[in-house]
Amino acid sequence: MDRIYLDHAATSPVHPDVVERMIPFMTEVFGNPSSIHYFGRQSRHAVDEARALVAKSIGAKETEVIFTSGGTEADNMALIGTAMANRDRGRHIITTAIEHHAVLRACQYLEKQGFDVTYLPVDEHGKVSPADVKAALRDDTILVSIMFANNEVGVLQPIREIGELLKEHQAYFHTDAVQAYGLVPMDVNEHHIDLLSVSGHKINGPKGIGALYARETVKLSPLFYGGEQERKRRAGTENVAGIAGLAKAVEIAQETMKQKQEEYRLLRETMLSIFAESGIDFAVNGSEDGLPHIVNVAFPGTNVESMLVNLDLAGIAASSGSACTAGSIDPSHVLVAMFGKESERIRSSIRFSFGLGNTKEQIERAATETVKIVKRLTNK
Amino acid sequence: MIYLDNSATTKPFPEVIDSFVTVATKYFGNPSSLHELGMKSERLLTQAREQIAAALKVKPSEIVFTSGGTEANNFAIKGVAFQYRHRGKHIITTAIEHPSVSEPCQQLEQLGFEVTYLPVNEHGMVTAEQVKKALREDTILVSVMHVNNEVGAIQPVEEIGALLAHYPKTIFHVDRVQGISKVPLDMKKARIDLCTMSAHKFHGLRGAGILYVRQGIRLSPLLAGGGQEMQLRSGTENVPAIVAMAKALRIALEKYDKQIDYLHEVKQAWLNELKAIPEIQINTPVEHSAPHIINFSLKHGMKPEVFVHELAKSDIFVSTTSACSSKKKAPSKTLLAMGVGEERAESGIRISLSFENTLEEIPIAVAAMKKAIEKLSEVTR
User: Fold this and answer.
1) Locate the Aminotransferase class V domain: which residues (chain B) (predicted)?
2) Which residues of A touch B25 (CB under 8 A)?
3) Do A235 and A268 fall within a single domain?
4) Domain match, A183 and A66 both
5) Which of residues 2-31 of A touch B (CB under 8 A)?
6) Residue A27 pLDDT more than 80?
7) Chain B interface includes A133 (CB < 8 A)
8) What is the nearest CA distance from A82 to chain B, expressed in angstroms?
9) Residue A329 burial (CB < 10 Å; 0-12/13-18/19+)?
10) Residue where a domain stops, chosen among A252, A268, A298
11) Residue B183 has pLDDT above 90, yes or no
């Protein structure tokens, strides 16, 4: 059976060019960048080049990019690192109810350390209102963390407006851009972003690598102490192959952004029109103008587990929400925030996410199979 | 090329790279995903955990994957400190630990913890007796490295473990990054509670490490989020690098079985050659030192960085001190602690071997070293 992978938001296949780019850093130039000999210098050079490329992709300076082990570390460092370094200026943090767990759990950790966290609600489209951010701001707010786009329903947050209103406030502005990066353009200066998290494996790069952008004015305590790598902000021998792979993935993502947007929008329309024509009952979660590669759909009368099992048997890999919550039976916290605990939608929604290698034919087949399953499960 | 900087990083085994590429391209799923591809990567992850646990003679549930040695050391030390802070705030470590142990300890000092840094003798060793004297009612953690990364001194980890068996409230952490696959250590017998290892020091890839967490030990996580790694370490698992690490460990341990005698022979041959060079003073202790690390100092104020660069011109790679601090022009912490004096501590050179190094390389490298010394002597004269 030809399997169709529609879970690119959970993790994505590594682009062949990325693997190719990584191999020389394992076989030939395997030096430790901190070593002063030739090998070390070659590795250092690759790391510098990658840093410049990542910086350029978001309009940042090279010195403002810190390589991490992934999105979770970048988010934890942004939250815990700024909170700990700026606790003398205040202990209030604002975030949203629909953040990734890497942000939410870090906030819960900070609450235990005596910080006060405001979790802003979202509307039924999953959007945060800038007015709510404004109303929640206090003199002792030190950080506002709002994701660029949600990973489960794809809704884009009003980052520009929030950045604008934080311009005059002491609070730093962090955005978890893990899901949006590489698919929509972003510029840290234009959006007044102080901290931004990125992950390699969501953009066809390798796992185990990510980056945190931290504006040079941001006071940040490290999470990992040790060697003086990453300008003393992140100790640990640099994962040069991973960093070079990430850079290649960024390069490809930047070059193909427009094309991907069109492609995925077409796939989205294809899928939704097949659902519409079939006469099944369904509703799209999120807004039309969200990330083009995420389609989150409620199928009333079905239940997530049986949908996923049946889809998997039909060779279609989809998800109930973020992979990190997929293992648990708890309903998605994002859908709960959008529709409430009692809504049937939180138990009958499926996330399809498109990416490298998906074709129109695949989507047609997946949509048709989905329709069959929905009909079977709802006895129609 | 003669690569003699294996304590900084090793060249990945070709089989390791093959595993990495296969998993990265074919089994790229997220282990938390419920579909077939996700379950496949979960199975690979489980398998890697079982293989590593078997090789280390511990339980799979005691293996926590991290992004590397630095994270594992930070996690062990701060994880214990934050979890058990109500039990006590005293930590014992040594003066010669890797920065990824000593720096978190310094961070903890700023947060109100008290840290005792045990001095070492002229052989770079601490004793269990020293640990015993430093132990207090409120000591929550003892962290002692297995093999020192700068001079190769082996610490009496088993004796310390035996001592700490009488102190059930004190957790024992061992940084085994340099020792794994070179110096045997039975973690259960040594009664170790937490043990750090890093893939790229045993021919695995960067970006993967291990913290052994003995069953029953609780740790406050360093990274919060999706709750991977039994709630101890969040973040999508780096499955390709972890599978590659399991393979690297297996091959490295096989090489140990077959080639350890040869490695000792290579080290001895190196020592014999180096001892014959009058401008060199050996720092590595004769006894209780690892088979792969040789540290020596250059006499007459010769600059170690220049020496390293000079050798690199002949495609021979050594290092001044540990890679993590090699950009600073500070004296070696370990050499200072051993009491060799400022001058000798500032001119240290480290040769670090792997099972890939040969006896045949020695005359070539030694000739290049003699030439480099000659050149440096002219400059200093």
Assistant:
1) 2-362
2) 13-14, 16, 19
3) no
4) yes
5) 3, 5, 7, 10-14, 16, 19, 23, 26-27, 30-31
6) yes
7) no
8) 15
9) exposed
10) A252
11) yes
Residues of A63-82 as b/e, b for ≥16 C-beta within 10 angstroms?
ebbbbbbbbbbbbbbbbbbb
Categorize the per-residue pLDDT at B380 as very low, low, confident or very high, splitting at 50, 70 and 90.
low
The alpha carbon of residue A142 is apart from the nearest alpha carbon of chain B, in Å, by: 20
CATH code where residue A303 lies? 3.90.1150.10
**Catalytic residue of the set A257, A317, A324, A336:** A324
Q: Which of A7, A29, A69, A316 to mutate to test the interface with B (most CBs of B within 10 A)?
A: A69
Cα–Cα dist B239/B23, whole Å: 7
Name the B residues in 285-314 with CB < 8 Å from any A CB: 305, 308-309, 311-312
Q: What's B222's DSSP letter?
A: S
B270-319: pLDDT as tens digits: 999 999 999 999 999 999 999 999 999 999 989 999 999 999 999 999 99
pLDDT tens digits along A314-364: 999 999 876 555 555 678 999 999 999 999 999 999 999 999 999 999 999
Q: Residues A27, A162: one domain?
A: yes
Average pLDDT over residues B235-242: 97
Residue A54: exposed, middle, or buried by beta-carbon count in 10 A (0-12, 13-18, 19+)? buried
Q: Residue A43: give the domain boundaries.
A: 16-252
Are the beta carbons of B227 and A30 separated by less than 8 Å? no
The one-letter amino acid at A192: H
Look at strands B316-317 and B293-298 and give their pairing.
unpaired
Q: Which two tokens stand for residue B268?
A: 């001895």
Asked if A324 is an active-site residue, the reply is yes
B237 at interface of A, judged by CB pairs closer than 8 A: yes
Domain final residue pick, B251, B285, B313: B251
For residue A26, the chain B residues in CB contact (below 8 A) are 12, 17, 20, 205
Which residues 72-111 of A have a C-beta within 8 angstroms of B?
72-73, 75-76, 100-103, 105-106, 108-109
Q: Which of A229, A252, A275 is the last residue of a domain?
A: A252
Spatial distance between the Cα atoms of B165 and B171, rounded to a whole number of angstroms = 10
User: Could you tell me the CATH number of the domain that includes residue B182?
Assistant: 3.40.640.10
**Between A223 and B323, where is the model more confident?**
A223
Q: What is the pLDDT of residues B329-368, one digit of tens each?
A: 678 999 999 999 999 999 999 999 999 999 999 999 999 9
How far is it, in rounded angstroms, from Cα B125 to Cα B144?
10
Given B224, B251, B278, the domain boundary residue is B251
Give pTM, 2 decimals.
Answer: 0.95
User: Nearest CB to B327: which of A36, A38, A317?
Assistant: A36
Residue A289: the pLDDT is: 87
Give A171-197 pLDDT, tens digit per residue: 999 999 999 999 999 999 999 999 999
Q: DSSP for A354-366, please give it.
A: --TT--HHHHHHH
